[in-house]
Amino acid sequence: MSTETPSGWNAAMGMSLLAKLKSDLKSAMLRKDEALKGALRIILSEFPTKITMAITLESGKKSTRAKRDEEITDDDIISLIMGLCKSERQTLEYKKETSSEYLEILEAYLPKMAGEEEITIWARENIDLTQFKSPMQAMGPIMKHFGKSADGNVVKKVLGSLG
């Protein structure tokens, strides 16, 4: 990996995830970094089938079309990469391995996940559990706040300890 353009992404970079993927692919090709190039090509090849939007044809029939670059959001790409990570973890589990270079590359493009402590602190400060019949009903507002950076299982664990 080159030091002048590290691969990976976070929202603080000030560039869209799509722009970063394309930029990293170009530099990986120039550096002949086959692992990074391959992983980025897999991500980008998923776009036409996974990142789509609903449309209604002139006949009234419902269909979908691939989103254009300017319509693709970071969340669209993050969801796609999370799906690829899940698939790779299942493959590794089957092969009885714990990690792969491909998985590490994919994870570099995901936002840093909120930890149990961070979720607990936010929930204590912002959620009144007495408003809910069960602590698990507070999951919605917490997931809405953290978005893709919180793992639902971690949120459940936090709510179980708070309740």
Can you tell me about this structure?
The protein is mainly alpha-helical and 163 residues long. It has 2 domains: 98 residues, no CATH class; 47 residues. The chain is 56% helix and 6% strand. The chain has 7 helices and 2 strands; from the N terminus they run H-H-E-E-H-H-H-H-H. Strands 1-2 form a two-stranded antiparallel ribbon. A hairpin with a 5-residue loop joins strand 1 and strand 2. It is globular, with a radius of gyration of 19 Å. The chain starts with 16 loop residues before the first helix and ends with a helix.
Secondary structure elements and their pairing?
Layout: H1 17-31, H2 34-50, E1 52-56, E2 62-66, H3 74-94, H4 101-108, H5 116-126, H6 139-146, H7 152-162
Antiparallel strand pairs: 1-2
Helix pairs in contact: 1-2, 2-3, 2-4, 3-4, 5-7
CA-CA gap between termini:
45 Å
Rg (CA only): 19 Å
Shape: globular
Largest sheet: 2 strands, antiparallel
pLDDT < 50 stretches: 1-5
- Based on secondary structure, the structural category is mainly alpha
How many extended strands?
Answer: 2
For the largest sheet, list the strands in their spatial order.
1-2
Overall pLDDT level: 88
Total of domains? 2
- What is the helix fraction of residues, given as a range? 55-70%
Order of helices and strands: HHEEHHHHH
Output the keywords.
163 residues, mainly alpha, two-stranded antiparallel sheet, 2 strands, 56% helix, 6% strand, disordered N terminus
